[in-house]
Amino acid sequence: MLKEVIVKHCTQAHLPKPLVRHRCFCQLGRPARLRPHGRPPPEHWLRHPCSAFDIRCCTLLTLFSVNPLNSVRGFVIRFLQKNVQPAKSSVKINSVKSRLQNSRPIILFLAARPKFLSASAAPVLVGSALGYAAIGTFSPVLFVLALVAIMALHAGANVANDYFDHTSGNDWVNTNPTPFSGGRRYIQQGILSPGATLLTALVCLTAGSIIGIVIVLLTHSLFVLILGLVGVLGGYFYTASPIRLGYRSTGELIIALLFGLLPVYGAYYLQTGRIDMPPVLPGCLVGILIFLVILINEFPDAGADAAVNKRTFVVSFGVPASIWIYRVTVIAGFVIAAALLIYSTTFYAGLFYFATLPIAAVALKFANEKDLTTPGLFGASQITVLLHTVGCLALTAGFLITAIRNPAS
């Protein structure tokens, strides 16, 4: 229909008939190779997105560069605007997507930054697998409870950090947020009010605490109670007044404990009921990995942190020194992995960890002042998160191999 209307218009206006080709817009990611009569590709293209219009109307018009045809192009544009209707399927998809994005439960769920909750799940996996390797038995109930509890506490800490970074002004002065740093920014974007953000944080922390109490009742363990209290208070007061651990040059070390040594040891204890040495080195290694994630994500925020007197490592020691801290810590992780090779229970875990050497090499390459201080670049954060994830999975796999080969080691 469109072709006939255009040709009729050209005939009435005594203009040459334009060359018209019908093609699906989905195949037009690059200029089509039209060579009619040996001529070069036409310069003028009229097209409209497949996402907005029915695919039957995806017509590519190639109009030669002749001045009289300007009126043809204008006519075609007006024709499309008046006669081409949005595709019903696209409208439905966009409508559903919009409703999901604006759904209150979905917004609250996303406010907890669920993509990063693997940072709290990883130490539970490592500690539980080590406990299984040590005694040859496994409690799935305690494992699931511990996993859900620490992820709920982590979610609450994430949302609480957004609230208190709002009250301190940190997120408001941050002009270089990345997908890995700068907070969720729902308050700054007007998506969530500060009150709703704080309430969400308290609900998550309460849920994690209740599950922790259930674990204490099942185990009758004062040690588990102490670990749980440290986790709840540490997560809340990381940015909350009056303690604000993250503002006192101690935040990175606190995170290494809360997401490294302590949950690894706690998960090990839940499976074995023992307080002994095997979880110390794996816990320290997981702590190093999360320390690297926190440290590398502080570089984009350094300006905003300094503006509100948030004394992170990068602010306290400067960019060059913090880069060297990062590099030395990456190497220290492999020193601990080498130490794991000494013991039979941890041998395969240490061996598997060395599989992360290529990732660590790339991370060291990205650890330079240009990549870490240029706005919009966050490759170092991406590769460090990958190092943490793969490293923890490597340790878990190593302990599972040990459990299969020698359950009572």
Short recap of the structure:
63% of the residues lie in helices and 3% in strands. The chain is an all-alpha fold.
Topology:
Layout: H1 2-12, E1 19-22, E2 44-46, E3 59-63, H2 70-83, H3 88-101, H4 104-111, H5 118-135, H6 140-167, H7 170-173, H8 194-219, H9 222-236, H10 251-272, H11 280-296, H12 302-307, H13 313-317, H14 319-340, H15 347-353, H16 357-366, H17 369-373, H18 379-405
Antiparallel strand pairs: 1-3, 2-3
Give an overview in words.
The radius of gyration is 29 Å and the shape is globular. It has 18 helices and three strands. Helix content is 63%, strand content 3%. It folds into two domains: 93 residues, no CATH class; 302 residues. By secondary structure, the chain is mainly α.
Helices, by number, come to 18
Largest beta sheet: what is the strand line-up? 1-3-2
Strand content: under 5%
Radius of gyration: 29 Å
- Secondary-structure element order, N to C: HEEEHHHHHHHHHHHHHHHHH
Features:
mainly alpha; 3-stranded antiparallel beta sheet; globular; 63% helix
